[in-house]
Amino acid sequence: MTIYKNLIAGEWVGLDATKNINPSDTNEVVGLYADGTTEDTKNAIAAAKAAFPAWSRSGIWERHVILKKAGDEIMARKDELGALLAREEGKTLPEAIGETIRASQIFEFFAGEALRLAGEVIPSVRPNIGVEITRDPLGVIGIITPWNFPIAIPAWKIAPALCYGNTVVFKPAELVPGCSWAIVDILHRAGLPKGVLNLVMGKGSVVGQAMLDSPDVTGITFTGSTGTGRRVAAASIEHNRKFQLEMGGKNPMVVLDDADLTVAVEAAANSGFFSTGQRCTASSRLIVTEGIHDKFVAALTEKLQALVVDNAMKPGTHIGPVVDERQLKTDTDYIEIGRKEGAKLAFGGELITRETPGFYLQPTLFTEATNQMRISREEIFGPVVSVIRVKDYEEALATANDTPFGLSAGIATTSLKHATHFKRNSEAGMVMVNLPTAGVDFHVPFGGRKGSSYGPREQGKYAAEFYTSVKTAYTLA
Q1: What whole-number distance in Å separates Cα of residue 286 and Cα of residue 272?
Q2: Domains defined for the chain, CATH in brackets
Q3: Do residues 218 and 238 touch, judged by C-beta distance below 8 A?
């Protein structure tokens, strides 16, 4: 098989490779992808540093054209790239194509932002002096992305980094190198100068660590586990480096007595189980008031019974496999923890077999859970959801906020009073009313509070806060 190599200083390099396995059919090798070394990473950082002076002063039209070309090609190849995504990550084909379209839209947005770069000119408090406030690119940006959104998250980090004049060293998750390689190849062919964008695939303990150790990396944007995020923060502080972290979530969905039952069930099922529950914005805590609790659980259980778990590429599949064997073990371990803690397994929780060998798990619903149980406090990152019964709205809000995380939160209600109060008092970075907790537009800020996020928001015009540094210049008239 062809080895898909790393891109360093404009050249495709690398001999050693790792198999990319399809979680829907473990007999299928999606491709062989280069396994980068510490030396590869150092070379990539050096190339990015060398390319920075020219790229940081490049014209806005050049950046616009390259980013737009990339967005156009991704959109034109959405079916092909969506199929690659579904095969390597296990997301259903419709979801995968939708994610690919989102990646295209992100590049289109930042192609526009390249033409909208602006600053301020204001008078000084001193006479005959002018003040200019502008934004400069940071320098070499290290990008580390997770496996659950293998084309959208790389897009929403790479596109603004390039838009604002930075150079990039990019390390995708080991499990899903295919989509990342495709994005880099598209940008490379779109006309990026050598060294502006460098791809080093490989182990986090090797490639990621080399990025953290380098004083020449002036900013790191990371999405992944809370534990790794803390290590990124500690290493970045040592180098006085700017860093941005998107980490875990234990997102609540509140369902009040006055909720539209159909709307609430649809939002909860989508939030908790679609994308196999492998979203940092997934709602794994359903906080339900007493009056609607039993009807809601019955309706949600009926909904889960109708969901089809199967090969991600198969028409009619609602939920694909878990991404790999290690994550599957994490999911099943937590299911056993929930049982031992005293929660009631109301539905699912069993491994299932399909026509092709894969990591298939029934969507799992616990009831009679409390907010103190581990299954209610720790991120599982799988199709495992707990229902917590509460007395009223006040208890629901307190329970929703009683978490070390704060990424996304939702409420199902027909009460304008409660919806308005929840939006103002939820301790989350993103709040949804009568909608799934997962699903954010490409042009608006993404991020959370508490242990979920650190640093400026991602996406939209707010991305400039991380990828640039503000400069204030004075001129005597």
Answers
A1: 9
A2: 3-247+452-476 (3.40.605.10), 251-433 (3.40.309.10)
A3: no
Instruction: Label residues 223-262 b or e (16+ Cβ within 10 Å = b).
Output: bbbbebbeebbebbeebebbbbbbbbbbbbbbbbbebeee
For residue 477, pLDDT over 90 is answered with: no
Per-residue model confidence as pLDDT tens digits over 10-52:
999 988 899 999 999 999 999 999 999 999 999 999 999 999 9
Asked if 452 contacts 248 with a C-beta cutoff of 8 angstroms, the reply is yes
Rg (CA), the chain: 23
Q: Is the pTM of this model over 0.85?
A: yes
Query: In this structure, what are the phi and psi dihedrals at residue 181, rounded to the nearest 5 degrees?
Result: -60, -40
**133 pairs with which residues across the strands?**
120, 472
414 and 425 Cβ atoms separated by less than 8 Å: no
> What is the Cα–Cα distance from 264 to 416, expressed in whole angstroms?
16
Please state, as a whole number, how many other Cβ atoms lie within 10 Å of the Cβ of residue 78. Answer: 20
Kindly list the catalytic residues: 246, 280
pLDDT in tens, 104-153: 999 999 999 999 999 999 999 999 999 999 999 999 999 999 999 999 99
* Residues 6 or more apart whose Cβ sits within 8 Å of residue 297: 288, 346, 365, 367, 387
Residue among 47, 6, 41 nearest 185 (CA): 6
Quote the DSSP letter at residue 278.
-
User: Encoding tokens for residue 377?
Assistant: 């406090």
What is the reported pLDDT for 439? 86
Q: To 10 degrees, what angle do helices 60-76 and 152-163 make?
A: 160
Q: How far apart are CA 85 and CA 170, in angstroms?
A: 18
Buried b (16+ CB within 10 A) or exposed e, 357-377: ebbbbbbbbbbebebebebbb
Pairing of strands 364-369, 453-454: unpaired
Angle, helices 93-115/60-76, rounded to nearest 10 degrees: 160
- Helix, strand, coil percentages, rounded to 5, for the chain: 40, 25, 35
Question: How far apart (Å, rounded) are the C-alpha atoms in residues 146 and 381?
Answer: 12
> Which helix (H) or strand (E) is 123 found in, with range?
strand 120-123
Q: Do residues 149 and 99 lie in contact, with contact meaning Cβ atoms separated by under 8 Å? A: yes
